[in-house]
Amino acid sequence: MHAFISVIPWFLFFCGYCTVGEVQLAVSNIIRSISTVFFVIVNSFAATTGSLVSNLIGAGEGRSMFRLCGKILRLGYAVGFPLIIIALLLNKQVVGFYTDNPALIEFAYYPFIVMLLNYTFALPGYVFYACSNRYRQYPDCIYFSDIHYSFLSGLPISVEL
How far is C-alpha 26 from the geometric centre of its chain's CA atoms? Predict the structure, then answer.
């Protein structure tokens, strides 16, 4: 269900964006292709979180899972932010890798920035979801009952105690 909820806003965005015209379709395809690189990074950290939380629970150290999530987030931002800064500084070259049309490169500027800033919100959403998902598999270790996720960003909104 989480995979569906995390992908459907992008699907709706691209569906709405694609009906506008040929140029918008080209821009959305370029942005989607570039965003794949950042989503691979986010999903990698989330998968790692799930494995490490399972190891903590198996070792009887389930209480230190939030400390682990904090470390993973710091590492994720340490890896992601330099890439985002490089992509922002070299946005014309990055988009230019996919097209040599100057109009498409200019049109892609703002969607490119929005896509890059999404990394900031997607990383904690995916990491905390992976953490809570693993933690729920062991009912005797659960310290919180549910985490609600925002439909648009994947950010945890609240934790019910």
Answer: 23
The sign of the dihedral angle between the CA atoms of 18, 83, 147, 133 is positive
Three-state secondary structure readout of the chain: CHHHHHHHHHHHHHHHHHCCCHHHHHHHHHHHHHHHHHHHHHHHHHHHHHHHHHHHHHCCCHHHHHHHHHHHHHHHHHHHHHHHHHHHHCHHHHHHCCCCCHHHHHHCHHHHHHHHHHHHHHHHHHHHHHHHHHHHCCHHHCCCCEEEECCCCCCEEEEEC
The phi, psi pair for 149, rounded to 5°, reads -115, 140
The region that residue 64 occupies, defined by phi over 0 for left and psi between -120 and 50 for alpha, beta otherwise, is alpha
Q: Is the pLDDT of residue 9 over 80?
A: no
For residues 119 and 42, the answer to whether their CB atoms sit within 8 Å is yes
What is the rounded distance in angstroms from the CA atom of residue 80 to the CA atom of residue 156?
A: 20
| R_g of the chain, CA atoms, integer Å | 18
Q: What is the pTM of this model?
A: 0.69
> How do residues 96-105 score in pLDDT, each as one tens digit?
999 888 988 9
| CB-CB contact of 108 with 30 (8 Å) | yes
Q: Which pair of structure tokens corresponds to residue 140?
A: 């005797």
